[in-house]
Amino acid sequence: MNKLFTILIFIAGFSCSAPKHPDATKLCNCWTRLKHEKLDSTSYSLADSCDNLYKNILDKIKDNEEEMAAFNVAYSALQENGCR
Fold first, then answer.
1. In b/e form, how buried is each residue of 38-58, taking b as 16+ CB within 10 angstroms?
2. Mean pLDDT of 13-36
């Protein structure tokens, strides 16, 4: 009985996890790094890098509606949890 309960909890944990997309994670990590930087010329350079990363991601997936939707859902979920 305990094994069954443990397995059900394990499965529920995976089914309730937030949507994931590697590019959304990269972008979120970039903005998170920027958030923790001191405001100086380096932080402006990092902000430009994050903006360029976002543009490059969109250019890469713009012709694939499924990929674009997956990215947007994952990035929105990350933002809700404190990204940017």
1. eeeeeeeebeeebeebbeebe
2. 80
